[in-house]
TrEMBL record:
<feature type="repeat" description="ANK">
    <location>
        <begin position="55"/>
        <end position="87"/>
    </location>
</feature>
<dbReference type="InterPro" id="IPR002110">
    <property type="entry name" value="Ankyrin_rpt"/>
</dbReference>
<feature type="repeat" description="ANK">
    <location>
        <begin position="19"/>
        <end position="51"/>
    </location>
</feature>
<dbReference type="Pfam" id="PF00023">
    <property type="entry name" value="Ank"/>
</dbReference>
<feature type="repeat" description="ANK">
    <location>
        <begin position="88"/>
        <end position="112"/>
    </location>
</feature>
<keyword id="KW-0040">ANK repeat</keyword>
<dbReference type="Pfam" id="PF12796">
    <property type="entry name" value="Ank_2"/>
</dbReference>
<dbReference type="InterPro" id="IPR052457">
    <property type="entry name" value="Ankyrin-DD_containing_protein"/>
</dbReference>
<protein>
    <submittedName>
        <fullName>Ankyrin</fullName>
    </submittedName>
</protein>
<dbReference type="InterPro" id="IPR036770">
    <property type="entry name" value="Ankyrin_rpt-contain_sf"/>
</dbReference>
Length: 112
């Protein structure tokens, strides 16, 4: 697996792309659960406020917006912060509610 090889050789799991997204944000947005888990195992930081894209969104918000349950659960197990707000004042729960993702909301509320 290329991601594991890069990480094992010192690739920074917290680097930003031109949109301000970290690898874990991209993996969460694209529903690559195994990559999310791998990044977390190699030190990707899910809870610091400065790990937001240019819209202020975190990996948890991106996964909640799309209802990716496995990704949401692993991010929360690694202490992703539910209370962070994006540039418009939205939290991960608000992203889930916007799309009527009741199961996602239930998962998020378990960690509230």
């Amino acid at each position: 697996d290329l991601a594991k090889l890069l990480l094992s050789r010192g690739a920074n799991p917290n680097i930003h792309n031109f949109k301000g997204e970290t690898p874990i944000m991209v993996a969460a947005r694209l529903m690559h659960f195994n990559i999310v888990k791998l990044l977390l195992d190699y030190g990707a930081n899910v809870y610091l406020r400065n790990l937001q894209n240019f819209k202020g969104q975190t990996a948890l918000m991106l996964a909640s917006d799309r209802g990716f349950y496995n990704t949401i659960q692993v991010l929360l197990q690694y202490h992703a912060n539910l209370n962070i707000k994006d540039n418009k004042g939205n939290t991960a729960i608000m992203f889930a509610a916007k799309h009527g993702r009741n199961k996602t909301i239930q998962i998020l509320l378990k960690y509230k």
